[in-house]
TrEMBL record:
Keywords per UniProt: Membrane, Transmembrane, Transmembrane helix
Organism: Pseudalkalibacillus berkeleyi
Domain of life: Bacteria
Coiled coil regions, renumbered to chain: none
Protein name per Swiss-Prot or TrEMBL: Spore cortex biosynthesis protein YabQ
Keyword Transmembrane belongs to the record: yes
Pfam families: Spore_YabQ
Transmembrane segments: 6-27, 39-61, 67-87, 138-162
Classification via InterPro entries: YabQ
Amino acid sequence: MSLTVQFYTILAMIGSGIWIGAALDTYHRFQPRDKKWNWLRFVNDIVFWVLQALLIFYVLLQVNHGEVRVIIFLALLCGFACYQSLLQRGYKKLLEYLITFFVGVTRMIKKLVSTFVIHPIKVILNLLLTLSKMIGRLLSSVLLFILGILLFPFKIIGVFLLQKVLKRIQAKMLTKLKGKAGIWKKPTNKVKDWIGKFKR
């Protein structure tokens, strides 16, 4: 490598070391480190470091066509140390400010969407539901009224036929009762005659 390429490589690796420090703090901010072992955290750690390695290798490809030397690791370490000593405190404050800002913007957007989109949609849906219920009740009342008009002649005919049937049944029962009364009269007359004989 020429001196220019080496210089650019060192600068790029120092920048990459600073990037790794900032990315590590960002990752720890969104991935809290608790004492309990968690397989998901373990997988996330592996993915994080693989992505960082791929990013550094891509930078190396762009700067010196992927040549790896000891000075590259020293430059990475120097960049990381520079971040830890000079930039970490300021970056963490900036990160917290950005998180607070984006959380506030997200809440504001959520409130705006709820106020101007979701709430009006709920009101419209409630009105449509109430209107549909009213229309359903009105239609059911009209249908029941029309059905009552259509069934009224059948109702009259049914009542008439039922009365006829009841009259016939009543007449038959009266006839049977009269027949039974005649049957009971004959024994009663015989008893009277027998009592009369004793009186004589």
